[in-house]
Amino acid sequence: MRRYSAFAVAREAARYHEGWARAWRSPEPKQKYDVIIVGAGGHGLATAFYLGKNFGITNVTILEKGWLGGGNTGRNTTIIRSNYLQDPSAAIYEKSRSLYETMSQDLNYNVMYSPRGVLMLAQTEHEVRGYKRTAHANALQGVETAFVSPERVKELVPIISLEGPRYPVLGGLWQARAGTGRHDAVAWGYARACSDMGMDIIQQCEVTGIRKDGGKVVGVDTTKGAIDCDKLGVVVAGHSGVLAEKAGFRLPIESVALQALVSEPIKPCMDIVVMANTVHGYMSQSDKGEMVIGGGADGYNNYTQRGSFHHIEETVRALVETFPMISRLKMLRQWGGIVDMTGDRSPILSKTPVENVFFNCGWGTGGFKATPGSGWGFAELVAKGHSPLCEAFGLNRFREGRFVDESVAAGVAH
Amino acid sequence: MLILECPCCGVKGEETEFHGGGEAHIKRFGPGSSEEEFHDYLFAKENPRGVHFERWRHVNGCGKWFHVARCTQTLEVFGSYSAQTTEPPQEIRDKITAKRPGWRWREFA
């Protein structure tokens, strides 16, 4: 792999940019791999990357039904934060956030991590109490957050209206080291690093069946033929239920569409991420100037990748109340992704009833921020069979009633 | 946009008139059942990409619960029927078979 650097840019500038190589190879699948990862999104590629980097397992292939990073990796609102209430959540999301800080250097790929700060507005007395509690919990967990006053909120976000007609701003949970990243670059950077370690990334290769021998996985059937493996890691977000059915078990997951939208680009007006959970909308401004807006998930199972119109209406209405100056903005694009929701709104990183099959799913509406931490923990789980980061997120927690109950902690999808 | 017809009052409306209630025809397992049965009853979901049977409530209308057979991939509605039943009526199953030959959903079809 040729390193990207200022020198490389200068060198290529001098020769009509003809020397840039493809960032990753696109080989034909081999007959057998040590580990097959299904799903070349951020989490799948991160898993493969840390399998190679931390455990020296490089005989790995990553199979992708569509194109690399074309699922939820390319459909989220790029927010990175770790202000969670429960200890296991805070641990994995904080690991993730800290890995983002050095990711551009680690991967030699600019992922445009921007620690601009994330502010979660408290707009009811209940939320004030909840966020104060979260700030105290974060202090014990070693996650730097603070509960801030309405005056400080106004300083951080001058365009905000504190005296909203329905929900005045009573304060906010501020995480200064949180921020945003370039979601596609995260997938591309991991893909380039994986390919460089000798891993095969195979796109447009759908897994059609999972082959077992005596309760143990031996390989997968794909649209490019059968491939054997010792271990199988399934990291397919919204479609986890479909893959679990092929493996012969059911998951405590329901898939729904979550949508986002962006406005026309405008001059810089907001340099942090603001989330308003009571009214269910969140917004940040991209480097191009577009306001990136996310809202609520659909209320019924579906795989349509578009979402219901009334959710956009509700989200935009709430944001216009909070930020009156955006009322004349035109929206450019809207899209949806399929998110896999568990009952306690926490992910599943787990062994399964089929030996050597591991599932990484259930990230629901908050998977992007967890990409490196999820890959880090899941790689350890696949390589060693156990991982401290993943321990609380096993499938058995549903049977044993040990929920990591972020749905209660956050009050909304998160 | 999802358009449903309430079989209780016969009104056709778009989705904001209704509220989704999740998977239908779940058999309750309570005291005396095995842990496996209780776990599956509470948590294991069909969550198919395709034909799905689910519960809906006509919240901004007659307020009654009913069942809907729907495709989760296309939002096509195969039909709605009374909630006073433990399995989908044959007529609805036939309609689905005509449009989605070879469909499967638990033990129905």
Describe it for me?
The complex is a heterodimer of chains A (414) and B (109). Chain A has 414 residues and is of the alpha/beta class. Chain A folds into 2 domains: 31-82 and 85-108 and 183-252 and 344-410, FAD/NAD(P)-binding domain (3-Layer(bba) Sandwich); 118-178 and 254-342, D-Amino Acid Oxidase, Chain A, domain 2, CATH 3.30.9.10. Chain A has helices at residues 6-13, 42-55, 87-101, 103-107, 125-141, 150-156, 183-196, 240-247, 309-322, 371-384, 396-400, 406-410; strands at residues 32-38, 60-63, 79-80, 118-122, 146-148, 171-175, 179-180, 200-202, 207-212, 217-222, 225-234, 253-265, 273-276, 281-285, 290-297, 331-342, 348-351, 357-361. In chain A, the strands form 3 sheets. In chain A, strands 1, 2, 8, 9, 10, 11, 17 and 18 form an 8-stranded mixed beta sheet that branches. Chain A has an 8-stranded mixed beta sheet with strand order 5-6-4-13-14-15-12-16. In chain A, helix 2 packs across helix 10. Chain A is globular, with a radius of gyration of 21 Å. Chain A starts with 5 loop residues before the first helix and ends with a helix. Chain B has 109 residues and is α+β, with helices and mostly antiparallel strands. Chain B has one domain: Folate-binding superfamily (Folate-binding fold), CATH 3.30.2270.10. Chain B is built from 2 helices and 6 strands, in the order βββαβββα. In chain B, the strands form 2 sheets. In chain B, strands 3-4-5-6 form a 4-stranded antiparallel beta sheet, covered by helices on one side. Chain B has a two-stranded antiparallel sheet with strand order 1-2. The longest helix of chain B is centred in the last third of the chain and has 10 residues, at 90-99. Chain B starts with a strand and ends in a 10-residue tail after the last helix. The mean pLDDT of chain B is 93. The chains are: A alpha/beta (414), B alpha+beta (109). The A-B interface holds A 239, 241-242, 245, 250-255, 299-304, 308-310, 343, 398-399 and B 1-2, 15-16, 19-20, 22-23, 35, 39-40, 42-49, 52, 54, 72-75.
